[in-house]
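Worked Example 4.2. Read the sequence first, then its structure tokens.
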Amino acid sequence: MKIINTKTVKIVLGENAKDNTQMIHKYTSINDNFHWCHASEFPSAHAIICSEKPNRKDIKKACLLIKETNNKLVGIRRLEFDVVKLKHIKPDNKILGLVHLQAEPKIIKI
């Protein structure tokens, strides 16, 4: 797990499937209104923005961090990311790192 502190918020970035699952459990118990980000339709790191109301710049930063950690995503223009509150994420019971969205995510293009 990698922690990035911006001027306004802490962003937690998973570095593997185990990190992704552990940080969802940990940060959901801290505040389930924090926001979660993930590349839409691609395997990627998960990011948690430790804010109930992150600004657009912080959401974009979290998405860029995800994109920069995956060589397959770096070259994709206008890549879509799902952004949703942690309370709407349910980790899969069988597949480590896989989650199910319980609400329609906000789509951000980077």
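Now turn to a second chain, presented in exactly the same format:
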Amino acid sequence: MREVGYALRKSTIEIFVMSLLKERDMSAHQMSDIINEKSNLRYRVAPSLVSDSIISLRRRGFVVSIHPITSEYKRNRVLYHIEPAGLEYFQNQCGNLFFVSDLLKDMLQESS
């Protein structure tokens, strides 16, 4: 597993969370499982880190909590939903991410 810096990790977790919530409402634990699965455990994200990102997104009005569900272990889990402002924020963040990615590619090609 590659270690990723805290600030980069925090912002990418937010993008992962919003990307998943665009597809459907889900709990922090479900999001953590999906992120870990899709990255083949190269980018391990604990449910607590997803919860921290959700708290930040909720404070800014991008995500809301909706009805709790009971998991297979009889624990209540809160589902989260992305708001229209969150969708707009997500699109802006993706644009910024693509811009930085392209810029880094150009800079690395120039230095080769």
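Notes for the reader: The first helix runs from residue 6 to 23. The helical segments are 6-23, 28-38, 47-59, 84-111.
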